Automatic annotation (TrEMBL):
SUPFAM superfamilies given in the database record: vWA-like (SSF53300)
InterPro entries with a match to the protein in the record: DUF58 (IPR002881), vWFA_dom_sf (IPR036465)
Protein name listed in UniProt: DUF58 domain-containing protein
Domain DUF58: 44-248
Region of interest called Disordered, as start-end residue ranges on this chain: 19-39
Pfam families: DUF58
Domain of life: Bacteria
Length: 291
């Protein structure tokens, strides 16, 4: 799988943004962490402790206070990022298909993480839950994007199962990025599990235009099939039904955003008929997903 060159160039100078819940940890990266030690960016002074490197002593402050004082510096580390792509059968529906944009967005966010010095791992779920190894450095982008590009929509593994599986394996304080449609499938228990591990959840919801407004499908008796084999339903598409559907979808998405917010997460909604460049330059920049 390849991202358009213009997208790669744009992402190469961008960084993933967190709300502060996710935190840099371990490795040598580009993000200021809570750790203090050797570095270039001065953080603070503290009293000398036995075992400290005497080269860290601040002679001027020590002389002024009459007690040994050392200088501490900000340590720049990596942010652990987990990208979870919904590859269940429902993502293969819609016009244009939701999965194609979702796959590109998952790849774009993974690429932004790698180019920003973060450590990135990807998970897909559909027929089963598949996990790739954690990768670091933009030189691993081709490998990671190739792994994501092999995913195909199918099966019915739930987002709850995938998030629970992924959150349990991701480090504490990781940024967990979910890309899917989230129609009837985002269990509070899975979010609580991520929240308990101090993980920050960013949910990118991809919906097709006919899911947002089914009016173009026409009027009259219509048979709706569940893409994941859960049965079918016959409905009469008329003004009242369409209005009820729009209200229900609006209520569901508002509840979804509120649920994520209660657990320190965020929701970004996009349409499957948007180009990946448009989503990155408009939605992601405007919503503070990247900067």
């Amino acid at each position: 799988m390849r991202l358009p060159p213009a997208v790669q160039q744009e992402l190469a100078r961008r960084r993933l943004v967190t709300t502060g819940r996710a935190r840099a940890q371990g490795g040598a990266g580009e993000r200021p962490s809570r750790a203090k030690g050797a570095g270039l960016e001065f953080a603070d002074h503290r009293p000398y402790q036995p075992g400290d490197d005497i080269r860290a002593l601040d002679a001027q402050v020590t002389a002024r206070l009459g007690t040994p004082v050392v200088r501490e510096y900000v340590v720049h580390q990596q942010l652990p990022v987990l990208v979870v792509l919904d590859a269940s059968a429902s993502m293969g529906t819609g016009s244009p298909r939701k999965f194609e944009l979702a796959q590109q967005l998952a790849a774009a966010l993974a690429y932004a993480g790698l180019s920003g010095g973060d450590s990135v791992q990807a998970v897909t779920f559909g027929e089963g839950v598949e996990t790739c190894g954690r990768m670091q450095g933009v030189n691993r982008a081709t490998e990671l994007l190739g792994w994501l590009g092999r995913a195909r929509p199918g099966g019915s593994v739930t987002l709850h199962q995938a998030v629970t599986h992924a959150a349990a394996r991701a480090p504490r304080g990781a940024l967990v990025i979910l890309v899917g449609d989230f129609l009837g499938d985002l269990d509070p228990q899975a979010l609580r599990h991520a929240h308990s591990r101090a993980q920050e959840v960013l949910a990118v919801q991809v919906l097709a235009p006919d899911e947002l407004d089914p009016a173009p499908l026409g009027r009259g008796l219509t048979r709706l099939e569940d893409a994941e084999g859960e049965g079918s339903l016959s409905v009469v598409l008329d003004s009242a039904t369409l209005d009820a559907y729009r209200r229900a979808l609006g209520d569901w998405n508002a509840a979804l955003a509120a649920l994520l917010g209660r657990h320190g997460g965020r929701l970004v909604q996009v349409r499957s008929d948007q180009a990946v460049q448009q989503v990155i330059l408009r939605e992601f920049l405007a919503r503070g997903v990247i900067r």
